[in-house]
Amino acid sequence: MSKRKRSEASRDIMNKLTCPICVDYFSKPTYQCSKGHSICAGCYQNLSRLNPICPLCRIRYPPTPIRNFLLESMLETYPSSCKYAKDGCKETLNLSNRHDHEKSCPFDKEVNCPVFNFIANENTPPDMCKWRNSIDKLIEHFQSDHNLNPEENSQSSVTLNWGKTLNSDFMYRKKLVVIKEKYVLVTLSHLFEAYELGVMVLTLNKRCDVNVKIKSGEMFYKMVKPCFGMKSVVGDVCIFTLGTVELLVLEDKLELITKISID
């Protein structure tokens, strides 16, 4: 077989190992309809929720998913690079285990936007922003889509005054600050009974301790909690419960002041 024909045959095989919907290479698990048309797990889950019909032959998928084990065994024989190879990942992979690796690849810089979206004057629950991209573009996204500009700060801590009496219909407020050259998203929310202060250090994997001093009226107290990076499996937001509505909305002159530092 000539070099050209070998190349065409190889390209034809790789096309058969590509999901016809998302046009990405298959990875375990793969699913098929009763006629043998295969799609990847992600596309199968989406179709199962919306319209469980094969996009190629229009036959309805059976109630019990059908795995394509023959295709999955083929995936183990084809080498593949991580999609974060350009960022420095040198892991040796095959098509079978590529997706599992990419879910926890240390070179993955993609993060979800942590900001809630609220619809003013409507009794609808808050919804997370749908943006997802590199953490290097997160601050630009904050500025352009959420009108959230970083408050410059050269100190090792930042003092935030959240204002006087919080209205009974108050739900959510956010501030972007800089502490020790790190961007920190600070939120104040009243979604349930108590007010909660959320602190997120906008790094990928770094662990740090968040120190919060809270002054509310004549009350003053301090709390320390660990905070993990945005790609950590442990959790990335420190939540400090400040008190109930009755405690914080006490009188017109009441101000809520928080002082935050990270170690």
Structural description of this entry:
- It is a single chain.
- By secondary structure, the protein is an alpha+beta fold.
- It folds into two domains: 3-103, Herpes Virus-1 (2-Layer Sandwich); 110-262, Apoptosis, Tumor Necrosis Factor Receptor Associated Protein 2, Chain A, CATH 2.60.210.
- It is 19% helix and 32% strand.
- The protein has helices at 3-16, 41-50, 69-75, 98-103, 138-145, 245-248, and strands spanning 30-32, 38-40, 66-67, 79-80, 93-94, 110-112, 116-117, 127-128, 132-134, 157-161, 172-179, 182-189, 194-201, 208-216, 219-227, 238-244, 256-262.
- The strands form six sheets. It has a four-stranded antiparallel β-sheet with strand order 10-17-14-15, with no helix packed on it.
- The chain is elongated and about 65 Å long.
- GO terms for molecular function: ubiquitin conjugating enzyme binding; ubiquitin protein ligase activity; zinc ion binding.
